[in-house]
Design a protein that fits this description.
four-stranded antiparallel beta sheet; alpha+beta
C-alpha cells in the first residue's frame, strides 16, 4: 500500500509573520532608495575628431597622404588609379607594420590636386558599378 505523504503546513501565525517580514523588507528597500541621492553622471569627455587624412609635400615634389584609419584598400585603389591619370609620374602606397603604422599614399604629378581628385572620382565610379552588379 502506498503511504500517504503528509504535506508540511505552517500554522497561520507563521504565515502572517512571513508576510510581515516581506513587507518590512519592501519598506526597507524603499527607504534606502529614498535616502540615496541620485548620482549625476559626468558627461563623457569630448574626443577630438581626427582628420581622416593629412597631406604633406616634400622638396622633391612628392605628395604624401597619410590616412588616420586603416585604409589600406582605399589607398591601394587610389594609387592604382593615379597611374591612369595624365601627368602622374609616380604613384605608390607605403605601408609599415599593420599594428603600428598607418598606410600612406605617395605620388608625384604636375598638378597634384587635380590628379588626386581624378583618381578618387574614378574609384567612386568603379565602386558604383560594383554596387549595381550586386
Amino acid at each position: 500500500m502506498p503511504e500517504k505523504i503528509e504535506e508540511e503546513t505552517k500554522p497561520v501565525e507563521e504565515k502572517e509573520e512571513d508576510a510581515k517580514l516581506v513587507e518590512e523588507k519592501e519598506e526597507d528597500s524603499k527607504s534606502v532608495e529614498e535616502k540615496v541621492p541620485e548620482v549625476k553622471k559626468k558627461p563623457a569627455p569630448v574626443k577630438k575628431k581626427e582628420v581622416p587624412y593629412t597631406f604633406s609635400k616634400n622638396k622633391d615634389g612628392f605628395v604624401e597622404v597619410k590616412f588616420s584609419e586603416d585604409s589600406c584598400g582605399l589607398s591601394t585603389m587610389i594609387a592604382e588609379e593615379l597611374w591612369d591619370v595624365k601627368g602622374v609620374v609616380f604613384s605608390a602606397q607605403k605601408r609599415g607594420h599593420i599594428l603600428i603604422d598607418k598606410p600612406k599614399l605617395i605620388f608625384k604629378a604636375k598638378d597634384e590636386k587635380k590628379a588626386l581628385l581624378d583618381a578618387i572620382s574614378s574609384v567612386e565610379k568603379k565602386l558604383d558599378e560594383l554596387k549595381k552588379k550586386i
